[in-house]
């Protein structure tokens, strides 16, 4: 819990009462590789803060192909925000790629914090701004960069992820086939 409290305190002043409230609505949880926290098509109730480990959010299209939208590592948040904010069924599945420690929040309880402690709005606004910027960059990168350039950016953003993430997850995130990913890695190794 200390990781999350410190992250919040790095952005806003957190009174002891606000800190106590956050702790009261948070549930620390150990999750294991392969665990599914949110399943596409189900109701979304929770959002997660990653203390350590790695999770991914992906969608399965009508042809059964997986499309990885996000990886979440230490100090990142993950959920299906379309499901939460549009009150729709989940468009994503969130699964654990490694054994991980997370902090689970009921999304409605977390949203209720703003009424009690308005200072949290600034913290959440910053989180949402970072999330929107990240998504915009990802979309632009998919449209404007070559697969090799996207792979290089991926390695900078997630420097240790290749150790525990299957190639097909990385290829899915980059929007390429596993064979293309292998060719890119061979070319990179031969430079």
Task: Give a summary of the structure in a few sentences.
This protein is of the alpha+beta class. It contains 8 helices and 8 strands, in the order H-H-E-E-E-E-E-E-H-E-E-H-H-H-H-H.
Write the layout of secondary structure elements.
Elements: H1 2-9, H2 16-25, E1 26-31, E2 36-38, E3 46-52, E4 55-60, E5 66-72, E6 77-78, H3 81-85, E7 93-96, E8 100-106, H4 107-116, H5 120-144, H6 147-157, H7 167-174, H8 178-190
Antiparallel strand pairs: 1-8, 2-7, 3-6, 3-8, 4-5, 4-7
Helix pairs in contact: 2-4
Outline the structure in words:
By secondary structure, the protein is of the alpha+beta class. It has a domain of 115 residues: Sandwich (Jelly Rolls). It is built from eight helices and eight strands. A four-stranded antiparallel sheet has the order 1-8-3-6. Strands 2-7-4-5 form a four-stranded antiparallel sheet. A hairpin with a 5-residue loop joins β4 and β5. It is globular, with a radius of gyration of 18 Å. The chain starts with a helix and ends with a helix. 23% of the residues are buried. The mean pLDDT is 92. InterPro entries: cNMP-bd_dom, cNMP-bd_dom_sf, RmlC-like_jellyroll. It comes from Algibacter mikhailovii. This is cAMP-binding protein. It holds the Pfam family cNMP_binding.
